[in-house]
Amino acid sequence: MLAQRQHWQALQLQTGIFRVQAYAPSARSEELTIYLEGDGFAWLNSRQSSADPTPLDPIALRLALAQPSGNAAYLGRPCQYLDADREPCQKRYWTDARFAEEVVHSLDQAAEQLKVRAGAQRLVLIGYSGGGALALLLAARREDVARVITVAGNLDHAAWTRHHRVTPLQDSLNPADLRPALAMRQQVHLVGSLDRVIPPELAAAFVAGYPAGNHALVKVMEGYDHHCCWADNWAQLWRQNTQP
Question: Which of 216, 217, 155, 219 is nearest to 192 (CA)?
Answer without folding.
Answer: 219
